[in-house]
Amino acid sequence: MDTSIIENRDAAVEAPKLPDEIHYFLWNKIATLELKPGVKLSELGLAEQFKCSRIPVREAVRRLNVEGALDSQPQRGSFVSRIDLEEVKRVRYLREVLETRIVLDAYDANLLGPLVPLLRGMVRDQKNMLSFNELEKLTDADTQFHDFFYHLENKEFVQAHTGRYDIHYIRARRLALGVERSDKQRYDDSLNVVLQHDRMIDAIENGDRAALEDELINHFRNINHTLEDILHRNEFTDYFHI
Amino acid sequence: MDTSIIENRDAAVEAPKLPDEIHYFLWNKIATLELKPGVKLSELGLAEQFKCSRIPVREAVRRLNVEGALDSQPQRGSFVSRIDLEEVKRVRYLREVLETRIVLDAYDANLLGPLVPLLRGMVRDQKNMLSFNELEKLTDADTQFHDFFYHLENKEFVQAHTGRYDIHYIRARRLALGVERSDKQRYDDSLNVVLQHDRMIDAIENGDRAALEDELINHFRNINHTLEDILHRNEFTDYFHI
DNA sequence: TATTCTATATTTGTATACCAGATTTAAGAG
DNA sequence: CTCTTAAATCTGGTATACAAATATAGAATA
User: What number does CATH give the domain B3-80?
Assistant: First the structure.
């Protein structure tokens, strides 16, 4: 009896399938704007790049189409989608409603008061990053600051609906926060974000629920103002849809 | 990868494609429970059914996998997914937060007061359907009643995040409201729904915002109770995951 | 009878080939 | 030099074929 081969299907760590790898690769390239909106790709070219046939490539491409990252047109090609501002606005609204509710629920459950010192420390770190002009680190710290509340309420799953995986929102946020803007713009925006965090904690400390809600809603509307500013300056207009 | 060639033309010629048709057909069959959870399909069998090759079928199947409607396992087959109760609970939470906010926003904008007679008429119609035991019509009327508020606030897009296209939530709702339950159960549940609608309008009429919010939250939690009831009776246990 | 082994059938994953339509290129007329 | 037009090229859509893994049914065995 052959007992050398132990079959343990459930515990087996499945290797990522080829279409998944291709999808992941392209999604990241698109999300980071490394592949610019409007750029033309072709299934055959991708197949050569990944040294496989068109079939696995095609599966990844079709999935990217469904996700809105690619726009494939028969007999023309597959194009990196332009950023859909309406979609960004929709996601921003969802984030305003859902994340505001989660923070306020934590507030109403009296979870936030005892955490004020911890939150102050997080914002203090953010201020230090700002003073050292570590804006990349600050962006990550901002993300962590917000994730903190999701974890506090065990509502991590909601993040899937607040733009974390939305290719349009992700690219808009990158444009708004990333290296595409000038150093002064990035510093001003980052300072604004940190000051907003400070005022949120003030509201928590003061027991001012309405002020906390206002600060939250205003905070999530930042991206609207930044995008309007970018479009007003006619920067990156070819990155956007219409 | 060539990123130098930027295609500026965004032609938009839409034609119904074979994979889309197959996807739509299967999605509906699954959503209506006509294809029962756990049933095995095969790409080749579907290809024969649709009189085409496996390629278009495969595209539809892969998309259904991403959407959670199918679970394809290599060299085993493609199985209609069982209903994921955790996913249903997640979607129910999103609906509670988002739809409650939308109705309360309309209330705060003083849009609902003048509409009380209209809302009363809708509920009166629902009561008539109930008295004539037209439960299918009543289910549609319930959907319309809720859609009314989305349209009032121009937030139709939010419906995409409140279960309208979630295959697990849709099937759970169908089990909870549909012909799978006994006539008495369906009548009792429907009566409960209509009475809840009535109490919402009462709260609007009385200017009792807190009561409106409570009724809304309670209303969206109905499905939890119904599903617990179904599982407690050991009905349709093979429809659910674990 | 119950269990194990084996040949066969089934199913998904992938490669290759071909098609139809759109685009690009280049030749030719004015 | 510009415009027209037809051939060449590129691209996604589909069909067929094969490979690898799994399931199934029947035979062989204890």
Answer: 1.10.10.10
